[in-house]
Please model this.
Amino acid sequence: MGIENFLAFLLTALFFVMTPGLDTVFILNKSITQGRKAGFYASLGINSGVLVHTVLAALGLSILIAQSAMAFSLIKYLGAAYLIYLGISNFISKKEKSMGKPSVVGKPSKKQSFIAGLVTNTFNPKVALFFLAFFPQFINPNELNNPIPFVLLGVSYAIIGIVWCLTLTYFSGTFSKKLMANPKANGWIDIIAGVVFIAMGLTVALDKS
Model:
């Protein structure tokens, strides 16, 4: 199918997936502050974003993003803005709870958690650049214009990512239950989540690399 050294790809992909990064922080934040179910659907969303970047790489669109400073910056700032929006939403939820009002933001639904993960990963242009640099190393040079090897490698990468993300979700979700059972700790959950999301957004926006 045009793929070379597939076992080496799997081992390398596992190493990259397990290396702490934006996705890891996002999932841990979701799972600890909003529960295991939110982390589960956020994990599915993040790895669906991997598939989006896989399709872009297969179609050659990732090259256009890499070569266009304007497109790269636009995607990066949209992703950063969304993370900051999630953080502000958590602060609003905390304020309304403290005033005894029903929260407008409320606890995220399955769909909202999934979309949050999907948008966060899709609007991270560094993922596109990573795939452009990483995948061709395991594709026969004569097949670089063939989308099938990119798709197969992308799906394999996403499967590894889902397994790892769900493992993180399971253990951090267990910790979340203990937090939720503590009224004092529960009061700080929205604040912690808000700070982390805003910090992630600012990190993405201010990254010059």
